[in-house]
Amino acid sequence: MMPIDNFKEKNRGKIVIGITGGAGSGKSTIVDKVLSEFDCEFIHCDEVAHTLMEPGGVNYRALIKEYGKGILQEGSDVISRPLLTKAAAESEKGFARLNEITHPNVIKHSKATINKTKKKIVLIEAALLLEAGMDSVCDEVWYIYAPIDDRIRRMKASRGYTDEKINTLLKNQLSEEQFREKCGFVIDNGDGCSDGGDKAISRLNTLLDCIAKK
């Protein structure tokens, strides 16, 4: 964990916290707890990416050009997420090319939101936050950790994911060691831990106090 004394605010009176972790780690649970206690600007990068790939969105034409019209829902001009994921997985460049197309505009959109908001706290949630380079706009990145068995059980129970889909997700995400190395704060959110949200609130209060004393 990064010492509070070394915390440096980048965003001119705003604290920008990146929240990341593997699929099924419970990032949204921590986010919801923080949002219940603080008035925050919340950027959900997955939702931003979906918006930008809608017809007329800045990533729409690039994705069609890269993967063809086979990624469109049948009888529609809307991109199908499952078909896009399948096309990316089967392409020679894999998900790296998909990320090259989508991530820069997600970052651009997020930066614009950070600059525009009047709120003092900004939360950015993204499973691929580090891979996308979104940590560059964050004052601190939190890693939401849960044991792999807990994550798999959650993905099957709440999302109905198959073993194949889960394996694809896990293969394309950072390892626990990589997350811990790159993140400044770790929250244990396994099935046996009930205080993850409280730890997030405590950490944020500490950072706010740190800035107030500057």
In the predicted model, the low-confidence regions spanning at least 5 consecutive residues are: none
Which bin fits the share of residues in helices? 40-55%
Number of continuous helical runs = 9
Shape: globular
What is the N-to-C order of secondary-structure elements (H for helix, E for strand)?
EHEHHHHEEHHHEH
Task: State the oligomer.
Answer: single chain
What's the overall average pLDDT, rounded?
Answer: 90
* Radius of gyration based on Cα positions: 18 Å
Strand order of the largest sheet: 2-3-1-4-5
Q: For the terminal residues, how far apart are their CA atoms?
A: 21 Å
Please tally the β strands and state the result. 5
In this structure, how is the largest beta sheet organized? 5 strands, parallel
* Helical/strand content category: alpha/beta
The share of residues in extended strands comes to 5-15%
